[in-house]
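User: I'm curious whether this sequence folds into something compact or stays loose and floppy. Could you predict its structure so I can see for myself?
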Amino acid sequence: MLSSQQQIISFVREHLLHEKSVWLCTILKTWGSSPRPIGAMMACTLDGELVGSISGGCVEEDFLEELREGKLKALYQSQAKPITVIYGETEAEQARLKLPCGGQLHVLLEFLEPSVENKKVFDEIDSALERHSTTSRIVNLSNGKITVGGDDHARKKALVIEKETMFHSLSPMYKLLLLGAGDVAKYVAEIALALEYQVTLCDPRPNYLDNWSVQGVETSSRLPDDIVRESYNNPYSGIVALAHDPRVDDMALMEALKTEAFYVGAMGSERTSAARRERLPELGLTKDEIDTLHAPIGIEIASKTPAEIAISIMAEITAVRHGLKSI
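Assistant: Here's the prediction. I'll summarize afterward.
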């Protein structure tokens, strides 16, 4: 499974490699209520095959109608550079496109031909996202030339325009490593999949994985510290200890708390969490490293059932991912 951004980049790359031109639409600005954020994308082939979204559907319908009528190609040929289109500029158009009151979208339309340069750029971007590396798409708005950027502009803002240059940050798919094959882990995995995480469940205890299965989730009986060390030392990874067994949870945490993972949490009561924090220094962890641990895990919603606990956990992970350190 790929994130929505990766799906679009991969879609563009595949069609360019097969010598097919593609329209790429990117939201530059929004006013009022907007169903999609700045930086959201949609890609479309000349015969109307579409992936991604820039609205609730009505803008897409308007785009496809203009594509069928040849208006977009004529407009692009007249300017020979990326086009900025404003949707919802008038109240009548807002009503026609079913945009929320006051809603307005500024969208950049790029016509991407299967040139050697474009194939190389999208292959490079796709490869970076596959490696869980930060990357950005840099577009010269005066001539449409695209280059690839790294950490300088990625992860600061979704999209920045400086004079005649657009810097569009692209995120790789976020990953979650869940420790402990139990009911809470099943619900966490299901919610995480819906939120476009790549999910792996690890439990090295004999027979614990025998009856645990969630479609789309990879399972592993390897030692969790090895998995963390090999694959989860980056800002797009989260590690969630749910085993309630120090033999599993602590083994993962002793590595996880040393990584760049954006989230590390462990399930347990206040008492269990306090006991864990007393044990962790014995595993070679510093106070600063231990202080980054989220425990007890989740936000306070008086949750009791596995499903409710999973909701509180994923709510906290989502908040941390978006820059909220406490709730």
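Summary: The two ends are 30 Å apart (CA to CA). DSSP finds eleven helices and 14 strands in the chain.
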